[in-house]
Specification:
With 90 residues, the chain is α+β, with helices and mostly antiparallel strands. Helices cover 31% and strands 23% of the residues. It has a domain of 59 residues: 2-Layer Sandwich (GMP Synthetase, Chain A, domain 3). The protein is built from two helices and three strands. The chain has a three-stranded mixed sheet, covered by helices on one side.
């Protein structure tokens, strides 16, 4: 039987972004928060994230984590120019 290559397409950039976001969520350890890919602007190469909630026990807002998330995504996924948040945290 001849070897067949997988018919599956390699993941697109949005799937890679979503995977990386999911992998970061447990490490952020932010209580009562959510991190979600809102969209990826391919023309600008900018990731738009929705970050909601904060850490009620420590007084740390979730939004400052966007800088760390941006650094992580830029290291892991070539072609990302930046990360922006789409909504204010509470």
């Amino acid at each position: 039987m001849p070897f067949r290559r997988s018919e599956r397409k390699p993941p697109g950039i949005e799937q890679k972004i979503e995977f990386e976001i999911r992998s970061l969520a447990p490490m952020l350890k932010i209580e009562s928060s959510a991190l979600r890919l809102a969209r990826f602007d391919a023309a600008e190469r900018v990731v738009y994230l929705e970050i909601s909630g904060d850490c009620p026990d420590c007084g740390v807002r979730a939004e400052p984590f966007a800088e760390g998330i941006e650094a992580h995504l830029r290291r892991r996924i070539p072609g990302i120019a930046g990360v922006r948040t789409t909504n204010p945290t509470r």
